[in-house]
Amino acid sequence: LASLRRAGFAVAHLVPASGIVRGQSAIASLAAVGKNEAVLRTDVAQILSLETQPGGYPGSLMGAVAVVRQAFMDARWYDDVWGRYQKSPSGKPKPKTSVSWAALKPAVDGTQPVFIETHGMLEVLRAAAIAGEAKVTPRIIGSGDEYKRVKDIAALNVPLIVPDNYPDAPEFETSDDALEIGLTDLRYWNDAPGNAAALAKAGARFALTAFKLKDPTSFRGA
């Protein structure tokens, strides 16, 4: 918290850190106050990630995508079932209650945005397609390599949240060590700092974030 305050941040968007369908986020003050006093707004957004679960389920990107799709289909089905029951309950069995599916109702209604964390520019395209299929309002958290497919990503017309945790320069001691550094890594190191400029030039809508920065005070100088 102290490092964020030194960087000039007064509030933060706090999100669950792990899982696929992660839950809801909150806006909190970074002032040195109690936890209850710090919370400014709850239930801000639903947080998702196309993250695989090493050693668990799902262990593949296809599985993670399936979990997200199924969650939204189940939530919309649950909302429809309860909606029909509430309109005409007479003679019908009362549907079972699910707090998990009920929590997704604002998202499937379109009244609550859905933030989707991605791990590469191809996942940005996948996340936008999933959101369109589910008819939810997406905000996509990028990984910093959107410049590789910048025209396609800008054409999505989906708001992006772009990190500025650029890769460190490759380290090597001898010329032989330098030959072991892959061309892909070199290109990423060279091109990633221009990611935001490429998105702006392509007309994409985006905000910058200190997310994943080891030292938030470096945000302004990035």
Descriptive notes:
The strands form two sheets. This protein has a six-stranded mixed sheet. Helix 7 (150-155) links the parallel strand 7 and strand 8 (160-163). It has ten helices and nine strands. It is α/β, with parallel strands linked by helices and 222 residues long. Helices cover 40% and strands 16% of the residues.
Q: Using only CA atoms, what is the Rg?
A: 21 Å
Which percent band covers the strand fraction? Answer: 15-25%
**Arithmetic mean of pLDDT:** 90
Give the class from helix and strand content and strand pairing.
alpha/beta
Poorly predicted regions are none
How would you sum up the major sheet? Answer: 6 strands, mixed
Query: N- to C-terminal separation?
Result: 20 Å
Give a count of the beta strands, DSSP E runs of length 2 or more: 9
Helix tally equals 10
Helix content: 25-40%
Oligomeric state as shown: single chain
Lateral strand order in the biggest sheet: 2-5-6-7-8-9
Shape: globular
Q: Give the topology string: H per helix, E per strand.
A: HEEEHEEHHHEHEHEHHHE
